[in-house]
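Hey,
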Amino acid sequence: MSQTVLTAPQTERPALAAVLELLKPITWFAPMWAFACGVVSSGVPIGENWLILVAGILLAGPLVCGMSQAVNDWYDRHVDAINEPDRPIPSGRVPGRWGLYIGIAWTGLSLAVAWMLGPWVLGAAIVGLVLAWVYSAPPLRLKQNGWWGNTAVAACYEGLPWFTGAAVMAAALPDWRVITLAVLYSIGAHGIMTLNDFKSVEGDRRMGVRSLPVQLGVGPAARLACVVMAVPQVIVIGLLLSWDKPVHAAIVGAFLLAQGYCMVRYLLDQDKLLLHPRQCSALYNATGTTLYVFGMLASAFAVGAMAGTAQ
């Protein structure tokens, strides 16, 4: 089946619509949101920095995240031929080696934009780009193991964009509290990445990709994801209380309680989960993950208020 899809009739070059689909705009939201949290947490007024802000948003979303999607789809084309044969590369709409060429070009463009935004942003971008390549490309291909692969993606989607947003605004190394929040929410995002793997369990098993649902089973992987998502938020609540931000702590706590309800409804009902793992993970991502990122923003406002007061 996969061979038939991969050798389907192809055009010489991809249409712009196929390239845009390859870059997956829907995935840009997470790093752009994390970047916005970094901007808020810096406590620096946007003011005359709006052009820098726009460049940073483009770097976090369409450039670095878009590059990672193109590279991932190129190296995943055989797995996608099983799981999702209508994707641009296995379907032939992005023919030949165009997927690889787009990934390389977007890497260079990302480095150029990051260089213009300053050394701290350039450093963060280099780390993110390296993680994106080693996540998908051999010989390391971190996605072959869910523990390492999910860590790399979580860092690229949450921690590094958050750091970048704060660094862009401060034009310096962000405050330690900003970095602490970025790290904690990156750890929590590891659980979100585990849920994303539920949609490709069949293809991962056949192609030897050891995602956590493949290694542990769908039920244990879901329970682990719930713990990994919840514990960092509990720590964030404790930190906000210690920083004399009880209102923000209560807001994050309310979002966490609502996530708990979604976890029980969609992820901890074993009968429902085993029958419909893809649907359950999608429903949780539409509800619980949304609550997770709102909590991120609330904690960013807390730290940003402290930074603004200090200035």
